[in-house]
Design a protein that fits this description.
- By secondary structure, this protein is an alpha+beta fold.
- It has four helices and ten strands; from the N terminus they run H-E-E-H-E-E-H-E-E-H-E-E-E-E.
- A five-stranded mixed sheet has the order 2-1-10-5-6. Strands 3, 4, 7, 8 and 9 form a five-stranded antiparallel sheet that branches.
Length: 178
């Protein structure tokens, strides 16, 4: 009985020492930083990594909008359709046929996702105003950034994605029917 008890204490001590050693080595490891930009993906196109300087060089729009119970703020950003055009997905011609089934999926750092039909962004159809913003009240975004999606026309800000990491254009068309 005494031998079993001392073996349990020995094994427990050994596991505690291993956990402490692992914790110490993890604390010494360099911190993994969040991505410094947004990855834009579209089938058949090379991926685009959009960093802060690239976004700053694109035409910006300014809107006044507020989320939840916050006071209204001045937001500045690039139209999502301009971001897509930079990635090779142009909306300069009206969408037709199979392209009407395509959609844009925006993903945040915490994996929160929202979707827009590509036709929602088409100037001849929905023409929903969607901005990838990088400043609020003249300052770079802090906890919500470096990039945030803003949809000023929405009644509630459920599609105002914080910390945007990925924008994907997805072909939603299928050849099979249920």
């Amino acid at each position: 009985m005494a031998t079993r008890l001392s073996t349990k204490y020995f094994c427990g001590s050994l596991m505690l020492a291993a956990c402490l050693a692992f914790t110490a080595s993890a604390a010494d490891a360099p911190a993994v930083s969040a991505p410094a930009g947004v990855k834009v993906l579209a089938d058949g196109k090379p991926p685009l990594n959009l960093d802060a300087s690239t976004l700053a060089g694109m035409p910006h729009e300014e809107v006044t909008a507020s989320a939840h119970d916050e006071p209204a703020s001045q937001w500045r950003g690039v139209k999502l359709e301009d971001v897509l055009a930079k990635a090779g997905v142009s909306l300069d011609k009206p969408l037709r046929g199979k392209a009407l089934a395509s959609f844009v999926r925006i993903t945040a750092g915490d994996q929160y996702q929202v979707v827009f039909g590509l036709s929602d962004l088409d100037p001849t159809l929905g023409h929903t105003q969607v901005l990838l913003v990088d400043t609020r009240d003249g300052k770079p975004l802090d906890k919500d950034g470096p990039f945030r999606l803003l949809v000023p026309g929405d009644k509630r800000p459920a599609r105002w994605v914080r910390n945007v990491t990925t924008i994907e254009v997805v072909d939603g068309g299928t050849t099979s029917r249920p």
